[in-house]
Amino acid sequence: MSHNENTQGLLSELRQQTGQNAARCYQCGKCSAGCPMAQEMSLRPHDIMRAIASGHEQRLFEGDSIWLCLTCETCTARCPNECDPARVIDFLREKALAKNPKKAPRPIRAFHKAFIRQIRTHGRVYEMGLIADYKLSGGALFQDVSAAPGMMARGKLALMPSTIDGIADVRRIVDACLAKSHGDHGEEA
Amino acid sequence: MSRIGVFVCHCGENIARTVDTAAVAQECGKLPGVIHSVDYKYMCSDPGQLMVKQAIAEHKLTGVVVAACSPHMHEKTFRRATAGAGLNPFLCEMANVREHCSWIHESRTAATEKAIDATRMIVEKVKRNAPLSPIHIPVTRRALVIGGGIAGIQAALDIADGGREVVLVEKEPSIGGHMSQLSETFPTLDCSQCILTPRMVEAFQHPRIKLYTYSEVESVDGYIGNFKVTIRKKARSVDEANCNGCGACQAVCPNKKIPSEFDAGLGKRSAIYVPFPQAVPNIPVIDRERCSYFRAKAKGSTKVVCGKCAEACGKGAVHFDQQDTLVTEDVGAIVVATGYRLYDIGKDQDSELLKGYGEYGYGTVPDVIDGMQFERLASASGPTAGKILRPSDGKEPTSVVFLQCIGSRDPSKGIEYCSKICCMYVAKHTMLYKHKVHHGQATVFYMDIRAAGKGYDEFTRRAIEEDGARYVRGRVSRLYRDGEVIKILGFDTLSGEPIEMDADMVVLATAMRPQAGMAELAQKLSVSYDKHGFINEAHPKLRPVETNTAGVFVAGACQSPRDIPDSVAMASATASKILGLLSNEQLEREPTVARVDESTCSACFHCERVCAYGAVEHKDIRDRSGNLVRVVASVNKGVCQGCGTCLATCPSKSLELDGFTDAQIHAAIMAF
After folding, report:
1. Which residues of B are less than 8 Å from A54 in CB distance?
2. Which run of H or of E encompasses B330?
3. Of A166, B99, B603, B611, which residue is most buried, by most CB within 10 angstroms?
4. pLDDT in tens, B501-513
5. How do residues B458-484 score in pLDDT, each as one tens digit?
6. Integer Cα distance of B87 and B73 in angstroms
C-alpha cells in the first residue's frame, strides 16, 4: 500500500497516465549503455528517468534528447527493474507537443510527417518516396546523398513503390489517428 | 637416538611460490636424527595428515616437525594427527615458514635458506621434547552475560533454556537496551516493543536466569571454566524486594523536568524514575545527581530536603541510605553483549580519534536530530505519542531531510567503517514519516544504499518506489537555520547538479560506536579490542563469537555494527558455544605450564610477585610426622597461562616451562 499522497508533479502525472514509475529506476545505466542514440543525446535515457524522479521538469523539455529517441525500445528490453524508458520518453513527447505543437525540431517533425504519409499512401515505407518527401520538407537536400549508391547496390532502395493489400484499412486507421491528433494538438500531421 | 620426520607444506602456492619446498625437504633430510623428510601441496588436508600418520608408523618416528603455517593455524591439526598415530601429540611441533617466511620475503633463495634454518631449529627443539599430558580442570557450569539488550537477553535465554544457570548483568535500571527505544523494525515494520518486551519478561521470570540490573562488572578473576566475577550493584535507593512498582513515588517527585535518556532527550522524567513504563524490572531508581534530597546532602545540608517519594511509598521501599554492594558470582563462561551507542557528532569528543562535525548543526540548529530521536518521535510510547512533530515548535514537518553516513565512512572524522544499519533504518524512517504525514516529502542524501539481507533491498526500493522517498546521491556539505526552515546545501552526483533545498526537520544517521568504557571492560576480561573499542573476535571467519581469551565470548553490536537479526543470530551462536563448553564436567588444557623444582626453590617468591595470573601458590613441605620442613613455590596448573615470566625472574632457575624448557630453546638457538 502506498501512503504517497503527492499527486503533483511529473512523476505522479507519468504514473497516472502510463502506469510507469520513474522512481523505480535505480540508475544502473544499462538503458543508456544500449541506446543507439545515447551519444547524440544530452540527456540519455537514465538521465531522463532521473530528471523525472527528482522533479527537474525544465531540463527534460529544453534540448532535443526526447526527440532523438528512435523508440527502438532497446532500453525497455534491457531494463533490469522493469522500467519502460521508451514509453516514458513517448509520454514526454506527447506532453511537449500538448504544450507546444511546434516544439519538436523541424527535421524530426518533417521526418515523422513524411513517414506517416508513406504509410498512408502505401501501407509500408517506400524509401525513395520517403527520402524525397523528407528532403523537400526538411530542407537538407544533399544530406547523406553519398550513401545512396551503396544502398541501391544492396537492394535497400526499390525504384518502384509497392502497396499492401489492406491499404484501405491502414488509411482508415491513419485518418482516425490524425483526426484525434487534430483535436488534441490542433496540428496537421 | 631421535627419529624425526620433517613434513614441508606448499600451502597451495602460499609457501611454494617463494620457498623452494623440495629443497627444504631435501636439506632437512640430511640433518642428524632426521630419517624422513618430504614435501606436499596441502599438508593439512586429509592425504597430508595421512602422510604424517603413515610415516610415524612406518619409520617409528619419535618426533614430528611440520614446516608450514603458524602454529596458531594448524598446530592442533597436526598434533591430533600425531596422536592418531599413537605418538604423544606434544612431540609434534611446527616451523612457521609461511607468516615468518614466504609471506614476508621476495627473494626465493633467501626465503628458502630461512625456511631451512627455521625448520632445523625446530628439529633440534623437538629432539628434546618430552611427552606431556593435558591438564584437567573443573568447570563451573553457569555463565555470565554482560549487557541486557536484545543480544544479551537472547544469549541468556538460550543458555538458560539449554539447562544452565545464567547471571545477566545490565548497567541501566531496566533490561531491553536500544531495541526497547525503537518504534518499528525493518524490514517488516513490526513494532519493536511488541516483539521485545515478552522476551524481557521471559528473561526476568526464567528460573535459571539471575538478573542484576543497575549493576556493573567490577572485576573478573580466573580463567575458562572458573571465573570469579565481582558485580557492583549500584544503589537504587529503592528496595527491590519491597517495591511493587505502583509509581506513587514518581508522581510526587517535584523534579519532573529532567531530560529522559530513554526518549533521547526529547521527553522528560522525574528524579526517581523507571526509564519507561514497560521496564523490566518495574522498579524505580533515584538519580542521585538530580534528586533534591541527595543534592542538598552533597552540599553538606543537615536538613532533610524533600523526601516526598519516601513519604508517598506505601511499602517503605525508598531507602536514601542504600549503598552500592559488591556480589561475587562463579561462572564458567562469559558473554560480552554490551551493544553500541550513537556517535554524538558535536564538537566535544571523548576520543582523540574523533573530530565531530560543525557543518551539520547537531545540538546548535534546532530540529536537527539523530536517528534515535526520530525513533522516539515515531514511537507510540514516545514523547509525542507517535506523532512526527518537530522538537522546536511542535509543528508537523512537511519536508524532512535524512542524511546518511554521518560519521561513518569518514576517516577524516575518525570513523572509516560503514555502520551497516543506517541505510535500512533511514529507509524505515522515510516510510514511518510517510505513513504518518501523507503529504510530507522525505528526502535522503546517501552515498550508497547498502541493503544486503533478506527482504532488505526490497524494503529500500519500497521506500523509494511506493512511499515516494526522494533519494539523492551525494553528501550534504552544510546546513543552517534560515528563519523557519533549515537550508540544505548538497549535490546530486547522479544528475551532476548542486542542490539547495529547505527542510523543516533534518535527521542525521549518525555512526554506531561501541559503548563507553569498552576499553576498561575489555581489559578486565583480558580480551582484545580494536582502535574504536569494538571487541575483536578470535577469527573473523571461523571463530566469530569467541574472543582471544578462552571462555569469553562476544555477541551483538559490541563486536561490530550489527542490526537486530544479526545480533540475535550471533547471540544464539554464542549460547550454543557456551552450552557446548558447559556440557563438560572437566576441561582439558594445554600442559605448557610452569613447573617448580622443589629441591632448589629458595622460597623467595619473586615468581609470585610477577605472575599476572595469580598462579603461584605457597606449598608446605612436611616430614613424615607432619612437621613443617620448609615452604616452596608451587604453580596452579589450572591458572598458569604459560607466559614464562616467572622463569625469567627466578634467581635459582628452579622453574621450567613444560614444552619450552631451557634445554629445548637453547638447542633451537644453537641450531641457527
Report:
1. 470, 472, 492, 495
2. strand B325-331
3. B611
4. 999 999 999 999 9
5. 999 999 999 999 999 999 998 999 999
6. 21
Count Cβ neighbours within 10 Å for each residue of A90-125 and write b for 16 or more, e otherwise.
bbbbebbbeeeeeebeebebbbebbeebbbbbbbee
Task: Tell me the residues of chain B between 486 and 505 that have a Cβ less than 8 Å away from chain A.
Answer: 492, 494-495, 497
User: How far from B671 is each of B39, B117, B121, B206, B657, CA to CA, in Å?
Assistant: 21, 8, 5, 61, 20
Tens-place pLDDT, residues B86-104: 999 999 999 999 999 999 9
B179-225 per-position pLDDT tens digit: 999 999 999 999 999 999 999 999 999 999 999 999 999 999 888 99
Interface of A with B (CB under 8 A): 1-6, 21, 23-24, 26-27, 47, 50-51, 53-54, 56
Q: What pLDDT does A189 receive?
A: 39
Name the residue of chain A whose CA is nearest to B439's CA. A5
Determine the length of chain B. 672
Q: Do B494 and A27 touch (CB under 8 A)?
A: yes
CB contact under 8 A, B468 and A4: yes
Query: Which of the residues B461, B465, B493 would you substitute to probe the A interface, choosing the one with the greatest number of A C-beta atoms within 10 Å?
Result: B465
- Total number of domains constituting chain A: 2
pLDDT value at residue B251:
95
One domain for residues A21 and A86: yes
Grid cell in block for residue B326: 559488591
pLDDT at A186: 45
For the domain with range B594-670, which CATH number is right: 3.90.79.10, 3.30.70.20, 3.40.190.10, 3.50.50.60? 3.30.70.20
Question: How large is the average pLDDT for residues B404-423?
Answer: 92
Of the candidate ranges A158-167, B164-173, B431-440, the one whose mean pLDDT is the lowest: A158-167
- pLDDT given at position B554: 98
Q: How many CB pairs under 8 A join A and B?
A: 40
Task: Give A34→chain B minimum CA distance, Å.
Answer: 19
Give this complex's ipTM.
0.73
Bridge partners of B136, per DSSP, are: B588
Determine how β-strand B215-223 pairs with β-strand B226-233. Answer: antiparallel
How far is the C-alpha of B492 from the C-alpha of B495, rounded, in Å?
A: 6
Q: Which of residues 441-470 of B touch A (CB under 8 A)?
A: 441, 461, 464-468, 470
Question: At CA A23, angle to CA A19 and CA A26, rounded to 5?
Answer: 125
The residue of A1, A3, A56 whose CB has the most chain B CBs within 10 angstroms, and thus the best one to mutate to test that interface, is A3
Whether pLDDT at B556 is above 70 = yes
Chain A positions touching B473 (Cβ under 8 A) are 27
- At position B36, the amino acid (one-letter code) is H
Same domain, A146 and A168: yes
Angle at A120 between CA A119 and CA A124, to 5 degrees: 25
Average pLDDT over residues B33-42: 96
Asked if B468 and A54 come within 8 Å (Cβ–Cβ), the reply is: no
Angle of CA points B492, B465, B484, to nearest 5°: 55
pLDDT in tens, B49-70: 999 999 999 999 999 999 999 9
State mean pLDDT over A36-61: 91
CATH of B341-513, one of 3.30.465.10, 3.30.1450.10, 3.40.50.740, 3.50.50.60: 3.50.50.60
| Mean residue pLDDT across chain B | 94
Test A26 with B461 for CB contact under 8 angstroms: yes
Judged by a CB distance cut-off of 8 A, whether residue B127 touches chain A is: no
pLDDT digits (tens, 9 = 90+) for A102-113: 778 888 888 888
Answer whether A6 sits within 8 Å of B468, measured CB to CB.
yes
Q: Where are the beta strands (DSSP E) in B539-669?
A: 552-554, 586-589, 594-596, 616-622, 628-635, 655-657
- Cell numbers standing for residue B124: 633440534
